[in-house]
Amino acid sequence: MKILYFNPDRGVPVLGDKGASVHVRSFVTAAARLGHEVVIACATRGAGNTPPPARIIELPVTTDPATLSAEAAAHGMSAANLADPITRRELARLAHDRTINVKLLSVLQRIGFQPDLVYERHALFSQAGAAIAAQCGVKRLLEVNAPLIEEQARFRGLHLVEPAQAAERASYHGADAIIAVSDGVAQHVRRVLGHAAPAKGPHVHVIANGVDLARYQGNGNGAALRAQMGLGDTTVIGFIGSFKPWHGVDFLFDVFADLLRVRPNTRLVAVGDGPDLADLRVRAADPDFAGRIILPGRVAHDDIPDWLAAMDITVAPYHDQPDFYFSPLKIVESLAAARPVVAPALGQIPSLIAPSVTGMLYPPGNGADCRDALITLIDDPPRRHAMGDAGRRATANWDWTCIVRRALALASSPALEVVR
Q1: 15, 21 Cβ separation under 8 angstroms
Q2: Per-residue pLDDT at 417
Q3: With the C-alpha atoms ordered 412, 417, 419, 420, is the resulting torsion angle positive or negative?
Q4: Is 350 helix (H, G, I), strand (E, B) or coil?
Q5: Is CATH 3.40.50.2000 the right assignment for the domain spanning 214-397?
Q6: Nearest-CA neighbor of 124 among 96, 104, 102, 101?
Q7: Which of 98, 126, 255, 322 has the fewest CB atoms below 10 angstroms from its CB?
Q8: What does CATH list as the number for 2-210+400-412?
Q9: What's the pTM value of the predicted model, to 2 decimals?
Q10: Residues 6+ apart with CB under 8 A from 89
Q11: Segments in 13-160 forming alpha helices (H)
Q12: Pairing of strands 117-121, 2-7
């Protein structure tokens, strides 16, 4: 099958380090492994990681003044509104969505690629995927990874709320089937659809994130990294992910500070980049930590198996939030690498971690219980090794190949209603 993988989100570079970027590459790689031919159409190609086995078409978002002025006028806005950076960013996305279908179809015609399916990663202010699929005469599967409007408003700012909501509704209703990565995301999608019955709208299917088992079951070269960082045989607590507010690395620092009072030989290695990293570097330099925290910064995803191999325990320290909707890649990758995971009992996480079998769960926001879970694993190496082995076995059905096969099977399902 020929698949057009449509990723119109400028914030998800295909070759970048974000979990979303890893998701794109992993999905496409698995699809190719299953024998499909894939073309990726994206707003941002990015750099820093090995390209997946697919042709990549980059159609970047235009931010020139003329385009933004025209889009502002189309929404009844004056030129004065363009002074605001958030408004400019949103108008650029709206303008991009207005023209992307014509540009992309022209490129596809030029390269001679006629897709049999459009698989789209949902993006804020984006609804063009429905028109692209309709003009190609094929079905469209829409993958939704988060309630993007709420997320944008909470963490980055959102001004053009009504256009964003209109685009979201159009995108959801214009799908033949919707894949949500968690129950929380599925509930959000159904609310937007107005609880539409399957006969009147797209079916919503929950398919969680996966892991490339072959990458993580080779154990990685952790010994070299431990030697390089001077870790010796100390117990290493690890974090790998984005340093964003909701990921809770500040909470992990609080827990680690408390832990050092009773287990002073423990070390913390937190790998990744993001807006909170600068402040956390300052905090890590505090004399109380005395060089016990290592912050390597950005690491290519190809190297993550080695970093996990250098860790003894990993933590996914998400902050407490009532609408937790994530399907955390960091957890399934840690389990596949045979590392027990300590995490809060939030959202989908209890379905990923079997308590005291593959990891330890603690009440969200409870630093004392998180610390005690870490102490339990620090003090009992045989137990944590057994939990790591159990975690690796538990991921046997989470390989991206299995996940992608399930997702693509929806395109040929007799029950799939075409809703154009």
Answers
A1: yes
A2: 43
A3: positive
A4: helix
A5: yes
A6: 96
A7: 322
A8: 3.40.50.2000
A9: 0.88
A10: none
A11: 19-33, 65-74, 85-111, 128-136, 148-155
A12: parallel
Alpha-carbon distance of 29 to 323, in angstroms, equals 31
Closest CA to 329 of 352, 347, 306: 352
Task: Please return the burial class of 372, using the count of CB atoms within 10 Å of its CB with bins 0-12, 13-18 and 19+.
Answer: middle
Give the residue, 59 or 78, on which the prediction is more confident: 59
Q: Where in the chain is the domain with CATH 3.40.50.2000?
A: 2-210+400-412, 214-397
Q: What are phi and psi of 382, to 5 degrees?
A: -60, -35
- What mean pLDDT value characterizes the chain? 92
Is residue 383 a contact partner of residue 377, using CB atoms and an 8 Å limit? yes
| Residues whose CB falls within 8 Å of the CB of residue 11, separated by 6 or more in sequence, listed in order | 18, 20, 44
What tokens appear for 416 in the block? 């799939």
Q: Examine the pLDDT at 419 and tell me if it is beyond 50.
A: no
Tokens 């500070």 map to which residue?
257
Phi, psi of 399 (to 5 degrees): -60, 145
- Region for residue 314 given its phi and psi (left: phi exceeds 0; alpha: psi -120 to 50; beta: otherwise): beta
Label residues 132-161 b or e (16+ Cβ within 10 Å = b): bbeebebbbbbbbbbbbbebbeeeeebbbe
- For residues 29 and 53, is the Cβ–Cβ distance under 8 A? yes
What backbone torsions phi and psi does residue 314 show, to the nearest 5 degrees?
Answer: -120, 155
Q: How confident is the model at residue 246 (pLDDT cuts 50, 70, 90)?
A: confident
Q: How far apart are the first and last CA of the chain?
A: 22
Q: Grade residue 207 by pLDDT with cuts at 50, 70 and 90.
A: very high
Q: How far apart are CA 23 and CA 210, in angstroms?
A: 8
pLDDT in tens, 258-309: 999 999 999 999 999 999 999 999 999 999 898 899 999 989 888 999 999 9
Q: Which neighbouring-strand residues pair with 236?
A: 267
Query: Which amino acid does the sequence have at 1?
Result: M
pLDDT of residue 80: 85
Provide the greatest CA pair distance for the chain. Answer: 66
